[in-house]
């Protein structure tokens, strides 16, 4: 029961962090939104990593396999976060974040092509519900033709960026699971999230020539709010992972799509909230079917 509460809290805090990031930082662009999401969480996450570093013989985890796995994961996560932030920068939360629901679909298909795993009947039903939900998000366009909602996915570019994010998450979820198996769930989560929070701003500073200090000074309040809620998500994420299998935890964490719809209305007065909430419910049911009954 505790893992259920923690997983849902993780979903709430990630949606709240995204809403705060859009509200306070989006005027600075998606690259700085990425810096805000990662660097802002570092002061909250790093002490936990130090605790595990001092309390456990964690240096034994740093095998060649662990290091290579972490570096690949870090590279993909940075790319995914840039697409993620670009998506919520340019599109309503209620029209973009639900597309993260496609992650389990991508996992099913990568499992088919890489491992030869076949899609079960419940898995196919889950896919159908998620795709139907994606169609319904843009149903108001139906007066332009039956295919117009599908065109809406293309035209509402934020949803496309979140689809790319969901695809990458389909890979990183496997690498993250491997990282847990090569070490310890709580240690890996604290180490990895701290590493991500520290290295992402440095890499983006080098690539995009960002003035980190001036950005921090100008947007300190917003960055702390975004980073603090992101860190709370990480804490709940870590604790839930220590209690239950990854697939189940991630499935319930996707309650974030409901919170995103509600926060989109509360913060930004986004339109078609009732319809998008219904679409999100369908997508979430699809996620649960894939996670628990595939």
From TrEMBL:
Cross-referenced Pfam families: EamA (PF00892)
Organism superkingdom: Bacteria
Stretches assigned to the EamA domain: 2-137, 158-291
Protein name, entry field: EamA domain-containing protein
Transmembrane recorded as keyword: yes
GO CC field: membrane
Alphabetized InterPro entries for the sequence: EamA_dom (IPR000620), EmrE-like (IPR037185)
Signal peptide limits: none
Keyword entries, A-Z: Membrane, Transmembrane, Transmembrane helix
Organism expressing this protein natively: Caldimicrobium thiodismutans
Transmembrane helix in keyword set: yes
Transmembrane parts of this sequence: 35-54, 66-85, 105-137, 158-175, 187-208, 220-241, 247-268, 275-293
